[in-house]
Design brief:
Transferase(Phosphotransferase), domain 1; 521 residues; 11 helices; 22% strand; 20 strands; 33% helix; alpha+beta; eight-stranded antiparallel sheet; Phosphorylase Kinase, domain 1
C-alpha cells in the first residue's frame, strides 16, 4: 500500500489521518497523523511489509506489545499496534504519542553549534528523567538501542522511544534477532559478542548519552571511519574516555564520577541497577557542607587515579586479546596447511593397512601434534607463536645508543647504559610469526618457520633442512636434524652465513612432510 497525505489508520475506536512523513528508518517510516475525533497529533510507525511472514517480525510485534505495558512520563506511550492481519489493506503499524519538540540529538547539535554547555542543574534534571524512563523500560525490557535519536522531547519532558530492538529483560535472551544488536557508537563492550543482553548494556549506552550531554563530545576519539564496525568495537572494548572536566570545567566531580561508572567496561564495576544511579543523582542535591571543596578535590584525585588504572587495564586486556587472536591465526594456519593434509594421508594409510595403524593426537595446551607409527617410533610436531613479550632483551649501549659488547665496553671510553628492547626474530628480512619443527624419536628432524608476508593476512611456511657443514669436530647425528626451540633464537640468524651447520630453506610442500614420515616408518 502507498501511504500519502490523507491515508487513514485506525485503532478500532478512532481514525487517524496522515498529515505528513516525519521520519524513515530500517524498519519502515514514521508519519505524523491526527486523531479525527479530537485533533490530537500522534506518530504512526509503519513497518516494512516484507516482515509479515517472518518469525522475526512476529517476535518484534510481540515485544512491542510488551513495550506498550511500560508506563512512565519519560517513555513514549504506545497507543495501538497492528500486526498486519486485522486490516490486511494496511501495513503493520504502531500508533504512539507524538513528541513535538524534536529529539535529544537535535538539542545536542544546537548546543554544540552555539557552544552552550549544560549546567550541573540542567544535567541533573535531564539525567533524572532518563533514569526514571529507563527504570520503567528495564522492568519489562532491555531496550538495546539507546541513543540521542531515540530520546524525544515533549514540552519539558524527555521521552525514550523506539523499541525496535528491544528484548525481554532476561540475561539469557540472545541479541542476534532483528538483524542487529544496536547502534555501533552506543553499543556496550559485551554487546559486540551477541551472546546475551542485560539492563547493564542499556546503562552503558545511556552513559555515553550522559557523557555527550556533559561535554557536548563523544567519549572516544574516532579518527578512522573506513572500518566503521572495527573502529567502534575497538573504542568500546579498549579505549578509555577522557576526563569530563577536561572539556567542561563546571561539571562537578561527583557528577563526573556517576557518568564514568556507567561507562565501566567491566560489568562487575558498572552500575547494576538504575536505582543505584537514581540514589547517586539524588545525593547531588543534598545540602552543601563546608568540606565540599575538600571532597571535590578528593573526588578529582580519585577520578584521575581511576582513569590511569582503567587505561592500564584496557591496555593489558587489549594485548591479551591481540595475543589470543594472533595465536588463533597461527593455529589455524597450522591446522589448515600442515595437519589437514597429514590427517588425510594417515586416514588413507590406516584404511588400507592390515598390519598396523598410525595414531595422531593433539595437545590441548599448545600447538603440538604427536604421531605414533606402527613401529612404535614417534614424531612430534611443535610450533611456537612468536610473541614480543618473550623476546624482551637487555642490551648494553654506549652514549650514542649503539649496542656494544661487554668485553668492548670494558675498554671503551663511552658511557654505559642497559636498555630493554623487543627483538622479534627475522629470517633474512621477513618477520618470523612462529617457529618449531618436526622431531622424530630417531633423532632426525626438520625445522619449520612461518614467515610474515607483506600485504597478506596469512604467513608462508618454510622447511629448514639442517646438516653438518664439516667445520665442527663433533657433528650432530643423525642428519637431518631439527634445532630445539631454545636454540632457534641463536641459530636462525646464522642460517645465512658460514657456520658449523648448513641450513637449507625449502618452501613448504606436504610431500616433504609425507616423505619424512615414510622415512621414519
Amino acid at each position: 500500500m502507498i501511504i500519502t497525505k490523507g491515508t487513514i489508520f485506525t485503532d478500532d475506536e478512532s481514525d487517524y489521518e496522515v498529515i505528513e512523513q516525519i521520519g524513515k528508518g530500517g524498519f519502515g517510516a514514521v508519519w505524523l497523523a491526527k486523531n479525527k475525533k479530537n485533533d490530537i497529533k500522534y506518530a504512526i510507525k509503519t513497518l516494512l511489509s516484507d516482515f509479515r511472514d517472518d518469525d522475526e517480525f512476529r517476535a518484534l510485534t510481540n515485544e512491542i506489545k510488551m513495550a506498550a505495558q511500560v508506563s512512565s512520563p519519560n517513555v513514549i506511550k504506545y497507543v495501538y499496534t497492528h500486526d498486519g492481519n486485522k486490516f490486511p489493506e494496511l501495513p503493520p503499524y504502531i500508533i504512539m504519542e507524538y513528541a513535538e519538540n524534536g529529539s535529544l540529538s537535535e538539542l545536542l547539535k544546537a548546543r554544540k553549534q552555539s557552544k552552550q554547555s549544560f549546567s550541573n542543574d540542567e544535567l541533573t534534571k535531564l539525567f533524572l528523567q532518563l533514569v526514571n524512563g529507563m527504570a520503567a523500560i528495564n522492568s519489562k525490557l532491555v531496550h538495546r538501542d539507546i541513543k540521542p535519536d531515540n530520546i524525544l522531547i515533549q514540552g519539558d519532558l524527555l521521552k525514550i522511544t523506539d523499541f525496535g530492538l528491544c528484548k525481554l529483560a532476561c540475561e539469557q535472551t540472545r541479541t542476534m534477532s532483528f538483524k542487529g544488536g544496536g547502534t555501533y557508537p552506543y553499543m556496550s563492550p559485551e554487546a559486540w559478542d551477541y551472546t546475551k543482553n542485560t539492563k547493564q548494556m542499556d546503562i552503558y549506552s545511556m552513559g555515553i548519552v550522559f557523557y555527550e550531554l556533559a561535554t557536548l563530545l563523544y567519549p572516544y576519539d574516532i579518527t578512522n571511519d573506513k572500518d566503521y564496525y572495527g573502529v567502534y568495537q575497538k573504542a568500546h572494548m579498549y579505549d578509555v574516555p577522557k576526563a569530563i572536566n577536561s572539556f567542561n570545567k563546571n561539571i562537578t566531580p561527583a557528577l563526573s564520577s556517576i557518568i564514568m561508572k556507567m561507562l565501566e567496561k567491566r560489568t562487575d564495576k558498572r552500575f547494576k541497577e538504575w536505582s543505584e544511579i537514581l540514589t547517586a543523582l539524588s545525593n547531588l542535591n543534598m545540602p552543601s557542607n563546608s568540606d565540599n571543596g575538600i571532597v571535590d578535590n578528593m573526588l578529582n584525585i580519585q577520578l584521575a587515579r581511576d582513569s590511569e588504572i582503567k587505561a592500564e587495564e584496557s591496555k593489558r586486556l587489549k594485548r591479551v586479546n591481540e595475543i589470543d587472536a594472533f595465536c588463533k591465526k597461527v593455529s589455524y594456519q597450522y591446522q589448515n596447511d600442515i595437519i589437514a593434509p597429514l590427517v588425510a594421508l594417515i586416514d588413507n594409510f590406516n584404511m588400507k593397512s592390515q598390519s598396523g595403524k598410525i595414531s595422531l593426537s593433539h595437545s590441548t595446551h599448545d600447538i603440538t601434534t604427536s604421531i605414533r607409527l606402527p613401529s612404535g617410533k614417534t614424531i612430534k610436531i611443535h610450533i611456537q607463536p612468536i610473541l614480543k613479550e618473550d623476546f624482551v632483551r637487555q642490551r648494553r649501549v654506549n652514549d650514542l645508543g649503539a649496542i656494544v659488547r661487554d668485553d668492548y665496553y670494558n675498554n671503551s671510553p663511552y658511557g654505559n647504559r642497559i636498555i630493554s628492547r623487543v627483538e622479534i626474530p627475522h629470517y633474512k628480512n621477513d618477520r618470523i610469526l612462529a617457529w618449531g619443527g618436526l622431531y622424530a624419536s630417531s633423532g632426525q628432524g626438520y625445522n619449520l618457520l612461518l614467515l610474515e608476508q607483506k600485504d597478506e593476512l596469512y604467513g608462508k611456511w618454510l622447511f629448514i633442512i639442517n646438516t653438518n657443514s664439516g667445520l665442527f669436530r663433533k657433528p650432530r647425528i643423525p642428519e637431518p636434524f631439527a634445532f630445539q626451540l631454545d636454540e632457534l633464537e641463536k641459530e636462525v640468524p646464522l642460517m645465512n652465513v658460514t657456520h658449523i651447520y648448513n641450513s637449507e630453506p625449502m618452501d613448504f610442500d606436504e610431500k616433504i612432510l609425507f616423505s619424512f614420515i615414510m622415512n621414519n616408518l
